[in-house]
Each structure stands twice: as structure tokens, then as C-alpha cells.
Design brief:
single chain; 175 residues; alpha+beta; Alpha-Beta Plaits; 53% helix; 23% strand
Length: 175
């Protein structure tokens, strides 16, 4: 090995320089990567906590949808076996004395939009009906508790009878 004679003061300078180089190497290869990794882990934990909060919130929403789905299933199962929307509307028209004003009733084919239930729609045309009869009929057919809804309604003046109305009502339910 190479022997170099150094004065005591020069030896201290070499020792200090060696220590500084060793500290620098430790900083570069151990301390800085440690702090970077610690920050990366903290960010990962923060993100995981945020994801967990979002999952908990979505779980609450999902439980609400699930309960709603169970309610829909319960309502549909509670209906009479032969229930049809058209027969329900005819019965409501008979009870409210509107049956004679029905000019047409068209059932649309059931459509399923990827869910477990089919959407059934009936379009009902009423001609020459007065306001009171129409309101009474509308109250009798819209039953959200039975999943029967008025989807669309068009009301116009009857051109032949003054003071009377013509109406096209689209009623919707799920089966």
C-alpha cells in the first residue's frame, strides 16, 4: 500500500473529508431514499383512506338502491297474478265514470333496459271529457305506492264541444 507521510493537521483534514464523503454517500443512498419512500407510503395511505371513504359512501347508496329494489319486488309480487296495466286503467275508468270517453287504448310492448323488471306502457285517448272528470280519473290511476305512474299527458281543447277537453295519457308500470 502507498504510504504517505502527512502532518497531524493534514490527517485531520483527510479524516474530515472522508467522513464528509461517507456522510454524503449515506445521504444519497440511504437517507434520501428513505424519506422519499416514506412520503410515497404516506401518499398511498392517504389515497387508500380516501378510497375507503368513497367505498363507504357508495355502500350506503348501494344499500338504498337494494332496499328500493326489494320494495319494488315486494310490490310486484303483491299484485294479483293476472294484473295488467290495461285492465287496471279500464277498472279505474269504470269507477270514475270515464269509460264512455275512452277513444282508444294502446299497449306498448314491454321493454327491459337491462334490469330485472319490464316496463309496461299504455297510451289512453280520452275525448270530450270535462276537467273534473279528468282530474278524478288522474287521481285514481297514478299510484306510486303500486308503481303506476303517469309518464306523459297531453291535454287540449275539444274542437267540437266547447268547455270539454281531449287528452292523451301515457301510463307506466313495472312488471
Amino acid at each position: 500500500m502507498l504510504k504517505i507521510k502527512l502532518a497531524k493537521r493534514e490527517k485531520y483534514v483527510v479524516y474530515i473529508a472522508t467522513c464528509l464523503v461517507a456522510i454524503f454517500i449515506l445521504m444519497i443512498f440511504l437517507v434520501i431514499p428513505f424519506f422519499k419512500e416514506r412520503e410515497r407510503l404516506r401518499n398511498g395511505i392517504r389515497k387508500a383512506e380516501d378510497d375507503l371513504k368513497e367505498i363507504a359512501a357508495l355502500s350506503v347508496v348501494y344499500q338504498g338502491y337494494r332496499k328500493g329494489s326489494m320494495d319494488v319486488k315486494r310490490i310486484i309480487e303483491a299484485r294479483d297474478r293476472g294484473f295488467t296495466l290495461a285492465s287496471f286503467l279500464e277498472e279505474a275508468a269504470r269507477k270514475t265514470d270515464v269509460k264512455d270517453y275512452i277513444a282508444g287504448m294502446t299497449s306498448s310492448p314491454s321493454s327491459s333496459k337491462g334490469g330485472p323488471y319490464e316496463e309496461s306502457t299504455v297510451e289512453l285517448k280520452l275525448y270530450g271529457i270535462n276537467t273534473e272528470q279528468l282530474v278524478r280519473f288522474l287521481y285514481s290511476i297514478e299510484k306510486p305506492e303500486d308503481l303506476i305512474f303517469i309518464k306523459r299527458i297531453t291535454i287540449s281543447d275539444n274542437k267540437k264541444l266547447e268547455g270539454y277537453l281531449d287528452s292523451v295519457i301515457q301510463v307506466l308500470t313495472y312488471q
